[in-house]
Amino acid sequence: MSRSIYLINPAEQTPGYHSLEVLADWRIANVVNLADLSTPTIAALVPRDWSVTICDERVQRVDFNTVAEVVGLTGKVSQRDRIIELAAEFRRRGKLVVIGGPYATLNPDDLRPHADILVRGEIEEIADRLFGDIATGRFEREYEGTRPDLSTSPVPRWDLYPRRAALAGQVQTSRGCPFECEFCDVIQYLGRKQRWKDPDQVVRELDVLYGLGFRDVFFADDNFTVMRRRTHALLERVAEWNRTRPAGKVRFSTQASIDLARDEDLLKACSDAGLTATFVGIETPNQQSLAETLKRQNLRVNLADEVTKIVQAGIMVMSGIVIGFDHDDTSIFEQQAAFIATLPVPAIVFSVLTAPASTPLYARMQKEGRLVSHARVGAGQFLKSNFRPKLMSATELETGSAWLLNQVYAPDAYARRLRAFVDASPVTPGVTGPPRFAPLEMAIAARLAQHGAGELRLVRLIEELFAKRADLRDRLSYLLAFYCQARFMIAHHGIWNPGQAAVAVVGRASA
User: Fold this and answer.
1) CA distance linking residue 465 with residue 489, whole number of Å
2) Alpha-carbon distance 434 to 452, whole Å?
3) Residue 504: helix, strand or coil by DSSP?
4) For the structural domain made of 4-147, what CATH number should be given?
5) What is the C-alpha end-to-end distance of the chain, expressed in Å?
6) Which of 6, 191, 256, 287 could be stapled to 225 by a disulfide with Cβ–Cβ 3.0 to 4.6 Å?
């Protein structure tokens, strides 16, 4: 009878924007931006008479000699290869391997051969049956979860997670998104009908994180603000909770759509609750591309003005930018570079469009015969897509994207957007603190400054702003680390060259 489980969040295949591998590479710290939410949540669903151990491989070594009889693996497409590697090794050692999570749900045929048990969908309502079957040894090869009422989702077992390994904790207050963007697999996994946790349930989770010392929390929602009435009720409760914290307030971040900018009352409620940053999928200034992908909420507005409104409400924006839509020709690279330069947004999360399995985009590309990487559906390599572009070649897409990334993350370009962000941000009176970097920030800045004159100018600008804007120090600290990670990620793929001239594809497009 199996009653012990080792839950693993596998390492990412390559560095990403939101991780912090650069700090380990520079021998400064071994930390991640966000604590993993999946393994503590699953741990809370395991029967209490089981022994449960958690491993976040991003910051811990996997214990292949674990005494646990069951190994649970979860992850996204970016963790796919490592999931398979770990599964093979643990099965070789005689462990029962259970695989679930987003990638397993959306690509079951790819992972089924590597699992003793495959779990698709959300686990809350099938957890008792799953673990009961494992305990008796009479389990099925595959279990399909439901879309549960989130009141059944327990407080995650953060007591089992390596607290000091993460800068911020996570709370998921809802699942699902009512929008229908063609390339998004969230609605295939979690549905378009958004489900919510009760405000008191959210506060119970916050209490646990606060007690463990977290002062930064990410609301891990696919679209935190889309359902206005629910969001107002939650923010009111969170604001009340945050005002009464005995050891200082918590800073929150999340993901939202651009229509947040149109609701001044909601912007104020976000700010009052302590929301200081949000990711917004801008994607492209190309209106035809937005219409093509059903990104209707971004149409018929001035995207730069809308982003500025959010920043002026005291909320830092991180923007997603995508290239490779069917209406993108080779002129898009210079168009995007010019557009990004108008944004008060230093942190640009750039990607080439891919078609994740189970999405309408994937179905369309399959129907049109344009898929080119069937073995890795939805997992295009960095700056590569898994389908053929329509108005340019794959080489032009990759070369132009590399040029654009270098334009966006050239140190002087980043510095200009950083200053624009600070200039647009309202001053919060009464905030004080030391005018100099803390030891971690000082170590990061010192290493960055060694990379060149542009990097040194950027460091000096951040130092100057750090001294002048005590109310923005948390965001400036984040933007310093984010820049280092972004350039580390770009260099990892061998394309870091911020001084390069416009590539031929871009030059031809603008001729």
Assistant:
1) 26
2) 27
3) helix
4) 3.40.50.280
5) 71
6) 256
Q: What is the dihedral of CA 233, 170, 382, 21, to 10 degrees?
A: 150
With tokens 């741990």, the residue in question is 43
Region of residue 327 (left: phi > 0; alpha: psi -120 to 50; beta: else)? alpha
Amino acid at 284: T
- C-alpha to C-alpha distances, 393 to 326, 328, 385, 423, nearest whole angstrom: 12, 11, 11, 40
**Hunting for tokens 């334009």 — which residue is that?**
407
For residue 193, the tally of other CB atoms under 10 A from its CB is 11
Question: Could you give the CA distance from residue 482 to residue 168 in angstroms, rounded to a whole number?
Answer: 14
Rounded-to-integer distance, Cα 347 and Cα 356, Å: 24
Non-local (6+) Cβ contacts of 167 within 8 A are 20, 31, 32, 33, 34, 216
Secondary structure (DSSP) of 444-496:
HHHHHHTT-HHHHHHHHHHHHHHHH-GGGHHHHHHHHHHHHHHHHHHHHTT--
Q: Select the CATH number that applies to the domain covering 167-419 from these four: 3.20.20.70, 3.90.1150.10, 3.40.50.2300, 2.60.40.10.
A: 3.20.20.70
User: What is the tens place of the pLDDT at every residue in 374-416?
Assistant: 545 545 578 999 999 999 999 999 999 999 999 999 999 999 9
Query: What is the C-alpha separation between 304 and 30, in angstroms, rounded?
Result: 36
Question: Which SS3 state, helix, strand or coil, does residue 98 take?
Answer: strand
Q: What is the mean pLDDT of residues 418-436?
A: 90
Judged by DSSP in three states, 381 sits in coil
- Least Cα distance to 260 among 204, 294, 221 occurs for 221
Residue 236 has a CB neighbour count (10 Å cut-off) of 14
| Length reported for the chain | 511
- Domains of the chain, by residue range, sit at 4-147, 167-419
**pTM for this predicted structure:** 0.93
Residue 25 CB contacts under 8 Å (≥ 6 apart), including other chains: 488
Kindly report, residue by residue over 323-343, the tens digit of the pLDDT: 999 999 999 999 999 999 999
